[in-house]
Sequence to fold (443 residues):
Amino acid sequence: LTPQQFAQRYEESRRTLWYIAAAILGDRTLAHDVVQEAAAIAMTKLSDFDSTTNFTAWMGQIVRFVALNEARGRQRRRTTLASPDLASGVLQGNPHPSSAAGSVGAPVIGDLEGFDDYVKAALISLDETARTCLVLRIVHGMAYSEISKALSIPEGTAMSHVHRSRLALRDRLSAHADALTDSKGGAP
Amino acid sequence: VTQRPSQPQFELVAAYLDGTLDAAQRQAFEASLASDPALAAELSFQRRLDSSLTRLFEDGPLAAAVAAPAEPAVAGKIGPAPRWRFAWVAAAAVLLLGATFAVFFLSRPTDPNLMSPEKLYATMQVRQWVPEWKCKDDQEFIQTVQNKLGDSILVPADTPGLEVIGWAYGSAYKGYPITPNSMILITKKDNDHILLVVDRARDDRSMSVSKKSGLHLFRDVEGDLVLYEITPRPEPAVLDVARAHKPKNVCPTNP
Fold:
């Protein structure tokens, strides 16, 4: 793979890579940095790329590796909400969910309130692969076949992750339905 | 919405939103919404969930509000008990001292912000080669370099076959190739983007690129400046231009 070919393929898969990083980290700013870091790593390994394989899958692996390292690093650096009881207490509706969202080291997306805060908190409970599948499918609108290639997992597994994630979020959020209905976001 | 939906209801709504129902199933589902408030509520709820996910992860311009990670609000409630805290601090101090001695005695100190040529190239690529500054003419080009580095070069804007895109500054990123003063000229020849790193020769450091990267690195010294060309091309293109147009009689800004 030449740098020119890398540049072209990178541009084609950039958004997908960004979504993978954002789903793992729950942080838009960091996602950009992680994708950039992954591109720098990939640039030093261009000859390792097998041109018969999927470029997004290759880059996606590097992005996931860098993102997971970053996520672990952040958890080490920051004081975390270590107690599962406290975490579940937040999800049961006692403290404001935005506190939990920031403290477990995942979503830190600004000042969104109400429903979005509960969704952020609920997302933390998902496995990172499941969260990535969900984001790629629902937000990025990727076909399951594309998700399968990008994450190097079987198509059925991607479908299963999305389905189970949706159900898990539904279960967690349904406990707060009254609060959600009264929240600033209002019903759609 | 306060009741958890039945499993078939959930499956049906999820399949509807996921686009996996066939036309007949879709039609039947939509018809049943009018007579089944619970199903309609479930659909509304899941649509709201999808909208929320989209809002949370949409890839738009980064607002200042989302740039800084939130600090945990309950940090004071958790953490190790006080008697252990001292032990942790002591252990950390010992480790820190050990690491300091190891770094001091066993290795040359390196600047953690130094950026390899490959990383610099990748960074510019990720940023889609957008410059931070573009000089309006050659005179401004010369003066810009002079002001920042005390000596100057020129890569004329009208160089045949070479597009001078503009300047990026080393200090603007999470690292720099030589020093925070490094200036990075972004150029393009044919379809190849080429970077020219310019800094003071006295601050020069050893740089190289890995063969695996497919990039090439060329070095030159012009007056008080050191120039590195980072390029995917096997021959330098920008260094030759800079060498041929070395400006003379540049007035320093701060004589």
In short: The helical segments of chain B are 7-18, 23-35, 37-57, 82-106, 117-126, 138-149, 238-244. Residues 53 and 59 of chain B are 12 Å apart (CA to CA).
